[in-house]
Description:
Elements lengths: L2 H9 L28 E7 L6 E6 L9 E6 L4 E5 L10 E6 L5 E9 L2 E10 L2 E10 L7 E4 L5 H5 L7 H7 L6 H6 L6
Antiparallel strand pairs: 1-2, 2-3, 3-4, 5-6, 6-7, 7-8, 8-9
Amino acid sequence: MNSRFFDMLRRALPVVPLALCMSGQAKAAPSPSLCAPDEQVAFSCPIARSHKIVSLCLAPGKATPPAARYVFGTPSHPELIYPSSEKYTANFQSSHLMYMGPTSGEAYSFINTDTKYILYEIDGTGFMNAGILVQPVGHLHASAELHCVPVSKETANAGGVYLNLDEIDRTKNWQTDSDLENHGLPSTK
């Protein structure tokens, strides 16, 4: 793993409640994104306190389950692209998150070398959170958490989400992450 990337993740631990970003249309693809023009955006958001973006991009076409790739960085300098080849051979997982009351969420995860990356969105009464957790494989806690940029409550309530609702049904066919479904998101130390 790129040590500069990991050091950046270790330093970036903002603790602020977040709302979801919007493109202005219900069920529109999240923006901005680092996906190629022919890819579908499954998840994307700008990272708080940085100029970076995280995106989960689905391969062109309508195959179910879709192949995907993860991109983190800026449009001019992507810092981590997984898988690194254009063959979309990575193994991504999709999980539904359940909490008490009307709170639930979705998460996408994958393992690159000995690190699990978890893209998540949680929606509850009066709040919505989204971001990335970085968890060393075999550890109970995440070593870093990066939050998506918050937006106003009015914008979030208009129906746009970090997750692309038009593509979520296709990713439901991915294998589930049993650790996330059984234990929820890991906390940071």
